[in-house]
Structures
1.
Amino acid sequence: MQNANLTMKKIAKELGVSVSTVSRALQNHPRIGSLTREKVQKLAKELHYQPNSRAINFKNNKSFNVGVVLPYLTEQYFSIALTGIEQTLMSKGYSMVVMQSMNDYERESAAIESLIKHGVDGILVSMASETYNKTHFNNATHKVPIVFFDRVLKHPRYSAVYGNITKAAFDAMEYLIGKGFTEIALMNGPNSLQSTEERLKGYIDGLKKYNIPVSASYIKNLNLTKEDTILKINELLDLENPPKVVLAFHDYIALDAMQICKERGLQINRDISFVTFSNLSFCSYLDNPPIATVEQFPAELGAQAAGLLLEAMETPDTYQPREIVVEPKLIIR
Amino acid sequence: MQNANLTMKKIAKELGVSVSTVSRALQNHPRIGSLTREKVQKLAKELHYQPNSRAINFKNNKSFNVGVVLPYLTEQYFSIALTGIEQTLMSKGYSMVVMQSMNDYERESAAIESLIKHGVDGILVSMASETYNKTHFNNATHKVPIVFFDRVLKHPRYSAVYGNITKAAFDAMEYLIGKGFTEIALMNGPNSLQSTEERLKGYIDGLKKYNIPVSASYIKNLNLTKEDTILKINELLDLENPPKVVLAFHDYIALDAMQICKERGLQINRDISFVTFSNLSFCSYLDNPPIATVEQFPAELGAQAAGLLLEAMETPDTYQPREIVVEPKLIIR
DNA sequence: CTGTTAGCGCATTCAG
DNA sequence: CTGAATGCGCTAACAG
């Protein structure tokens, strides 16, 4: 039963040497007698000595913890991103403190503050959809570096890793138009998210390229709640000319929308089809899955963002904030 | 642009008072002049003073971080549990450092060690299915309290929060037998998990109560990989008397098994049905979902475990390790 | 090669 | 009411 508060001091006293000798022996410092070294290391092992991490954190002013703030852990997209982050951080001895914003500005802001208070060395953020105010980021960045991933804030002060959504949306449109679809609706996200604008641009670019008129009634902004999804899909289905295919902000939107379609007697992939962003694994278990989906490689986004953050934390003097774009891929089912 | 390394010392110098005066003023210590207090607090606010958390951690020998080790973040069951944990911890000012074991003993062991090294105040664990050796827990528990949730280690030294799986399995069996099923297979987990044994007991108890013979060929242990699921469901379907319903260890097993059934030309819920544990949200989007499922309330399990850990950390002298059982609920679809 | 000293930021004792 | 001194555990500069 080893002592939980075993310090170098005690080892030193036990052995009749000084604390600094113990310190040097334990870290294989060159200027130490091999005999002393062995003696110290032996006793330390016997007593299960473990350095007090809090003292080391204090001394080095570093915790080897990074904070991660994201909307929902329960959205598989983000838990996959976390996996990429964990992997990258782990390889450098860092671990991650995770907090959910639940798309709420207040929670996000509180999370950032709390992380700073907990002494993380850096922060990774995927922004809440309700975030309208950026002061919490600006305050935090004076203390530790911040890197955004997926739901990013584009600003020269911040690094950001994100997918080329405009291109992905455009590719999806080309695919659909190539399949003969023209009545294509867009169930987009909230305007607070950068990627909402990008999806819209890809959508419109696609229509324009093939001279298909843009119909405002086919374009819906959602706030990412289930209720709003239900509202908006019903609006689309109530149109005189309901869409034959829907490009959905992500899989969760599509699933809820599909549910409504089915309830209204439509058959998925006959009366109406879906194309989605995310490519969540469980969609492959559906009998009538989305006909195509944009894989955004969340693990890669997370890993790249973690890589940038590591650089920012380890070489702050030379680090230049920058952006990394990961190319999504359209997957046809 | 506030100084990132603003210490009490600087405030003290600026104001021509001593550091201890600043310290007292900032924490509203009783023995301080209200004038001095105001003066100090005003300047501290102006300069955006924030106490150095690492110094405080060091001084108090406490980090307000707890570690959480679980199999997979990407399994929604665990991310829901995390949400319960986060909520409970947050209310007491703690945050969580998350690590995935990926059901691997080595990873789990390394995670525990790493958490200790990172200086967490306590650890929550949902065990890896491959964990055969408990020394990593025993070593860690000398340094910080450990509480298990869901996939628990039952031992008087440890606290544990888990569902009454035996009862839940039994209830499921009664339901199925009541519906007229007798050819009921059990796709169970690995023997390393406590809950595997419990499912088996509930399964057998159910059969026995209604005098249905227990057939060894209907009982399969899986290692929770997709490959093994495919192997075992095929074995079941290849029997002379294939089962009419399968009680599955959890939803992911059922989904993969269903896929194979469909590939083999069976129609779900006509030729073969499933009952599962977990009740993951996306199952409700399936055209032919499991006919019943055991809701285990992972958020509740996580929250209760976090509550026990908080008690263990905050009142270590009086804390008695104990177990909390959360009653699952059979949900009929 | 090893011991002594100093200091990281803060809270807390002990003096005044 | 306030200041000076102490120590938390560890590393590192400085002496010897």
2.
Amino acid sequence: MRENVDTRTRIQQVALELFTEQGYEGTSLREIAERLGVTKAALYYHFKTKEDIVGSLVQDRIAAIQRLIAWGREQPRTVGTRRELIRRYSADLHDGRHHEIMRFFERNQTALRNQPKGEMMRDRMLDLLDLLRDEDAPLTVQLKCSLAIFALHATWFVFRESGITDADRQRAALEVALELVGVSEDLVGENSGNPSVTLR
Amino acid sequence: MRENVDTRTRIQQVALELFTEQGYEGTSLREIAERLGVTKAALYYHFKTKEDIVGSLVQDRIAAIQRLIAWGREQPRTVGTRRELIRRYSADLHDGRHHEIMRFFERNQTALRNQPKGEMMRDRMLDLLDLLRDEDAPLTVQLKCSLAIFALHATWFVFRESGITDADRQRAALEVALELVGVSEDLVGENSGNPSVTLR
DNA sequence: GTCTATAGGAGGATAGAC
DNA sequence: GTCTATCCTCCTATAGAC
């Protein structure tokens, strides 16, 4: 029972790493098993299929983004709300290993397209982008709002192997992202809550 | 000889489409052949391997970006140069089907990682990002410069299925990208050349 | 929980006829 | 240039012993 949980978690860790490095379809269950020192069949005790491993990886993220979107939809569609959405998304991204899941997701868009959980994840991200932009605004403004999410994701890509801490990355990305969604015209509403609260 | 060229081109078109929709590894040569109404073996007359199809797709892009980088490295590292880099990259992207190649490339990062041409493409894009940012500048400024490229690529993702023309997309993306690399402090140098000249 | 063994299929690639 | 036929490899997944 204890090893049960442990092995399951180790499978997830190794799978996430290999899926991100070599791609979902480029990684076989044999490789995962070998790296763990077990056989393929052992994996099937913990996960019904290969897809299920992915499902177990992304389901937490899907739920977190859904919560964020649900919150956002109850707020007024102001710049202040958008800025808070960005703050919460950023905090969540840097909490735990969540950004690693997003990297895996980004790099395997096509492979995950044929999977229920993959499509769900994609749909939620699109919902979030839609929530961030005002469809009546000029295209340039809409694009900048959407780019804010990209900014938060892109830090690891842009500042690769530099001697930069994760905290530095997060700070810079957040600052740029907030700038992209716009300067709040309504500072009263903006700071009414805890600005750096996480999602959970 | 005439059909030779034709079939080769049709293979490239179908392959690009399927690779982009379903992923490189998720698309079999059988699928490509079937859609063209030929057999797998016929593909092997035109391309030595599956990798070779990818190579034929990206090699033009690699060359174009290399030319752009070569040009950029000869210029002073000013905001004006960066703005011109963005303009040229944007013009090139919208000339022909180049942005479709980039979409394919973005969506298949992991799969292309094991291929020589894929890595070359990736390295050139990283070179371009490095050329656009000043390593001594604050992280936020560097991030914004890099994001400019993302802005040019992201338009199709952000404004999906809207009734927006490609020209509108390009215009908005270019405006945002130019804003991200910074306002030119040196307007004299900036407009010395033809501002919308393409790469070739 | 993990193993051996294997089913069952699909994929990339090649040989050789036409 | 395109076809048929085939090889070989690797994959996901399952059955059943320990």
